[in-house]
Amino acid sequence: MTYTKFCQTPRGLRPVITFVGCCNSGKSSLINALTKQKVSIVSEVSGTTTDAVMKAFELVPFGPVILYDTAGLDDTSPLGEKRIKATMKILEKSNLVVLVCAEKGVSQTDKDVITFLQQKKKNFIVVFNKNDSLNFSQKDILFCEKNNIPFIKLSAKQDVSSLYQFLGDYIKPEPSNLFETYLNKEDIVVLVAPIDESAPKGRLILPQVQAIREILDAHATAFIAQPSELKNLLKCLNKKPRLIVSDSQALKQVAQSVSDIPLTTFSVLMASLKGDLTVFNKGAEQLDELQDGDRVLICESCSHKICSDDIAQVKLPKAILKYTNRKIIFEYTHGSDFPDNPAKYKLLIHCGACMFNREEMMSRIQKCLKANVPITNFGLVISKLNHIHLTDIR
Ligand code: SF4
């Protein structure tokens, strides 16, 4: 029963711990010992782990996490370069990076990764593995001490019990509270969730589920309706709701039905949780600066069937063309696809990214800021296009 509960924690709410290091440093053995499962294939053959392996895991006493095992950083096989690039992408969404060192000590390759992690301001630790058979040089230990890098010596073959607490001590937790301190006991919150062609069959999407759970945690009450039933629901309530949270797609319709109740969207709640609302608000202003021929990139963090009234590929572009009256070129990405350098775009519009952790979303924001490309969010764009004021609840 406990196992089921932990398995159900969505990926977007789990911090990511990534094990990196040179080939044969024992990354896979460490993960297998930690999880007490054969997550990765282990062998003496250098470079056994080719593509990254992911495992959802309950890290006692910390909580649910995602573990990544990665290919060796010194992989010289024909596909090595691609694998290292894939590893670097995983590092960007990592809340904690575990650099595993063995026979080579802290190699030059390891030092290059350390520089990358320091530049990206990532939490990382060093594990000196195979402590049962290797004597790590004083030079390597001093290197860690001088650079304030936490390290631990152990052997995946013998005992990794000290690693659980060590990981827990250094991992950066994922923020998880959509409403922060906004809700009080006995508040009523109305959620508006259109069940249209693009809604997943037989279930609600993660931001809706997350909101309901947090409302219950606050001892407030959640009501949920489709846009067409909203007016009727409000008529039935004998107390004014504290807040309405709408799906971005239904925002215009909802705003027309209510004028005296604070209003926000799931997308904006997610933007505050996973992104940077100040950056996104500024990014939305760029809609007024777009010119003919400008490129706008619309990004969704999950893949789904594109339907005739798709928010990302149909409704948003149509509404932006109408608002700007410019000939804008739209491009789209889904899931983990994202340009390394988004400089060719004049604006980037992102979904609520409920499937991502904050580290991944923030790395996208950083890429945009570095390339001087404004970035905003679906909910903020829709509110601007429709001149709807949203309540800032944080
Ligand atoms: S499009 Fe974005 S916000 Fe919507 S369900 Fe997918 S990941 Fe979540």
Description:
- The structure is a single chain.
- This protein has helices at residues 2-7, 27-35, 80-92, 108-119, 138-146, 161-170, 206-217, 230-236, 251-257, 266-274, 277-285, 311-324, 358-370, 378-385, and strands at residues 16-21, 53-59, 63-69, 96-101, 124-128, 151-153, 188-192, 221-225, 243-246, 263-265, 295-300, 329-334, 347-350, 375-377.
- It is α/β, with parallel strands linked by helices and 394 residues long.
- It folds into 3 domains: 2-170, Rossmann fold (3-Layer(aba) Sandwich); 188-268, Rossmann fold; 280-385, Rossmann fold (3-Layer(aba) Sandwich).
- A 6-stranded mixed β-sheet has the order 2-3-1-4-5-6, sandwiched between helices.
- Strand 4, helix 4 and strand 5 (124-128) form a beta-alpha-beta unit.
- The model is unreliable at 1-7 (pLDDT under 50).
- Bound molecules: iron/sulfur cluster.
- Iron/sulfur cluster binds next to loops.
Keywords for this entry:
35% helix, six-stranded mixed beta sheet, globular, binds iron/sulfur cluster, 394 residues, 14 strands, alpha/beta, Rossmann fold, four-stranded parallel beta sheet
Strand order of the largest sheet: 2-3-1-4-5-6
- The helix content is 25-40%
Regions with little confidence, pLDDT below 50 for 5+ residues: 1-7
Radius of gyration: 24 Å
Per DSSP E runs of 2 or more residues, the count of β-strands stands at 14
Please describe the topology of this protein:
Elements: H1 2-7, E1 16-21, H2 27-35, E2 53-59, E3 63-69, H3 80-92, E4 96-101, H4 108-119, E5 124-128, H5 138-146, E6 151-153, H6 161-170, E7 188-192, H7 206-217, E8 221-225, H8 230-236, E9 243-246, H9 251-257, E10 263-265, H10 266-274, H11 277-285, E11 295-300, H12 311-324, E12 329-334, E13 347-350, H13 358-370, E14 375-377, H14 378-385
Parallel strand pairs: 1-3, 1-4, 4-5, 5-6, 7-8, 7-9, 9-10, 11-12, 11-13, 13-14
Antiparallel strand pairs: 2-3
Helix pairs in contact: 12-14
Bound molecules: iron/sulfur cluster.
Iron/sulfur cluster binds at residues 205, 300-302, 351-355.
